[in-house]
Each structure stands twice: as C-alpha cells, then as structure tokens.
Amino acid sequence: MGKLTLGPIGLLPPSAAAMGIFQPDKGSGMQLVEGEHVPEDEAFEKLAVELLTRRNPTFFPGPNVVWAWNKEAEQRAELCLRLVKEVPGMNIITMPDYRPIYPKIDPEAVINPCHPNLTIQHNKIHVCIFIGVHCHFANITLKMIRANTNCYTTVLCGHDGHEDALISVWDHDGSKLEKITETIVRVRDSGVVTPWAHTPEGKEELEEIRARKAREKSNKDEANLFPGQKEVLPLEQGLDENAE
User: Do the Cβ atoms of 151 and 126 come closer than 8 Å?
Assistant: First the structure.
C-alpha cells in the first residue's frame, strides 16, 4: 500500500486507489491517515494536531450541513460549530452549491468543487476539514487540492471515506464528531503543541485579515448612498440564467 503525500503533486496526480490505498475494513476500529491504517484514537489525535498547528485552519461545510433539511442536519451543524469554536483562528467557508460559479467567485465566501484551489490559495489555507459534502464532489475536490496546493486535507464522511484525503474518517456520526472535538480540546490544552493562531506569525496574519475585512465592510457601507436600498448584484458577477 502506498503513502499519500502533501501536494502540490502536479497536473494529473494518480488517485489514491491507483496507488493501492484503500479504506480500512468496517469494524476494524481503524481510520485512514496519509494512506495508512491507524487506530481511531491515534487518527483523531493526528487530526487535532494538524488543525491546531497549520496555517489558517478552515472548515468547509457542504450542503448536507449548510442546509437545515432535517433535524439530523441541524444537530450536526451545531456540533460542527462547537468544533470550530475549539480551534483558535479557524475560519468557515461554505460549499453551498456544486454548480460552476462563472465568471467570478468570491474565494473568501465560498469554495466550489470546480476550482477549490483558488479559494485555498487566495486564503493561504494550509489545513482544512470537509463535512457534509456529497462523496462524488468531495472526491473531485480532494484530487484538485492535492494536485495544486500544499493544503493538508481532512474529511469526516458519513459513508465509506475518501482515500484522497490525508486524513479520512469514515462512518462519521455525531458521537465521533463530539469525540474529535474533545480530542482537539485535550491536545490544545495539553501544552504539547502551540496553536498556529497563538504564534506571533498567526496573530499578525489574523489581525491583518480582520483589519482588511473591516476596511472592505466600511467601503461597502459608504458605497450605499441611499439607506434602505437593496444591494444590486455587481455586473462583473454576471447573472445565473439557471437559477430557479
């Protein structure tokens, strides 16, 4: 079995399955970490360390979490927000829609499976976690990220998992999400690692991001000359003729 390495790999990297990497057998108590089968507790601890220590940790929730289409989705979303709260400096960028967004996307607002590398490169994201993205779109997105970026990808999947993620947790449910959050808190508070957001570099970068967003908001507010006026869609974004 091969070992999955951090990208960027190149234009057409081989799939993890083509490298002989497969998910652990169900009931084995193992998870997939960088192409290797490891005990679940060890995988969760590795996941916690990567989220805490790499630059600009980002949470990418997909439609199964973003849209409150049933009670289970609502409960999962609440658990996801708890996880985000425990990772210092963690950002949330949604994947609410799988359709291509042309001619322009806002890489600070959304991540799109057709060009995820743009969002990751623009925001200098070095580690991310996917939850609630449908499996076939997650597979496409993970391959593109590994090909074009140095982002450390992690996925919590409710089904069979994703070999192309550097950490893949399969058969994920609310109890596993709670356990991962508890592991993050324990590792964070142990003093063994220093969260990226607490380093001088992290503090400086996060302060720059906050200042830039404040300026952008101020500029946007000043541009609205008529209070109560509805925001007009900028022409450069175009119109989606397929929107319902």
Answer: yes
Nearest to 8 by CA among 114, 169, 117, 136: 117
Question: In the chain, how many domains are there?
Answer: 1
Q: Please, where are the H alpha helices in 54-122?
A: 63-66, 71-86, 116-122
Which residues have CB under 8 Å from 226's CB, separation 6+? none
DSSP state of 116: H
Residue whose C-alpha is closest to residue 162's, from 21, 11, 49, 1: 21
- Residue 189's domain is classified under what CATH number? 3.40.50
The CA angle 10-47-55, to the nearest 5 degrees, is 60
- Predicted confidence (pLDDT) per residue in 38-92, tens digit: 999 999 999 999 999 999 999 999 999 999 888 888 998 999 999 999 999 999 9
Token representation of residue 117: 């590398």
Distance from the first to the final alpha carbon of the chain: 46
